[in-house]
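Exercise 7 asks you to align residues with tokens for two separate proteins.
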Amino acid sequence: MRDYYDHAPVRIPRTPIVVSGSAGSRYDAIARIVGGLTSLPLLTVPDLIVHATGKCAQRVRDEDGETALLRAFEESTQRALESTPFGLVVLPPEALTQDRIARMVRSAVLVAVRREFESDDPRVLAALDTAVLSMLAGAPDHAIALQIVRTLELDDERLR
């Protein structure tokens, strides 16, 4: 890495990298650190939902119903995965339980940040089991982020 705040990524992935994880695993914070270390674009599906609807996901569910929320998740996930240059996509784990979203994510590299003792919905756990890279939360967020960067070879040799 030339400088922590370089605006151009050192390595551009050939496919989007989806970061998700167990509830309470801080997968979103870890994804932001990976983005900072690599200068890769970072899109969060919840932020894209807010941008598209003017409402947070919970408010979409409360005001417009479950079907509208599912549609918002699908459209925002598709938009994030098609965005170029490819970068990081933060996806809440419950979205992975939806068949259409799970199929979309198969075209990406799924990174799961998991807790040692998971109490998530079994469907979420099954979806996280499909991850290309599974990291155990518990170490400091920055250490987990560095491990993701190195494992996916998103860095240059000076970061090693």
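Second protein for Exercise 7:
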Amino acid sequence: MSGISRRALLLSSGSAVIASTIAATAHAGEPRRRDREPSRDLRALIKAHKATYAAFGNAIQERDGSNREHDRASRAEERALLAVCAYPAVREGDRRAKARYLLRIEGRGELDLAEHMQALLGSTNVERVGDWLPHRGTWTSVP
């Protein structure tokens, strides 16, 4: 019997997907100037995740906070992180910014749900890029 669990394999697969994105971008030719910077949509998603992550931390630290408030803040943070994972990073700047940000999240051990992996892998499917709804942070349909 193998000494590696499915969860450990899933986590290492996520790191491999992110690392391969970085490696692929390193081998690509020099992108056009406008493609080097992250898009406004991705910057907004990352900013939203940072805000919901901070709000979740505050909800946990509040002494008078209820479990319902903690759960609500946790779900909001999770939705924001899934939106970053699912964002189809087509431009060079988006790929680099998304990879850097998600590697930081993974470094804290917080990129550990199957939904994260599904969203991340779904975001690499070029055929689905047109199905992305940036204002909702989701896909039009499940693949």
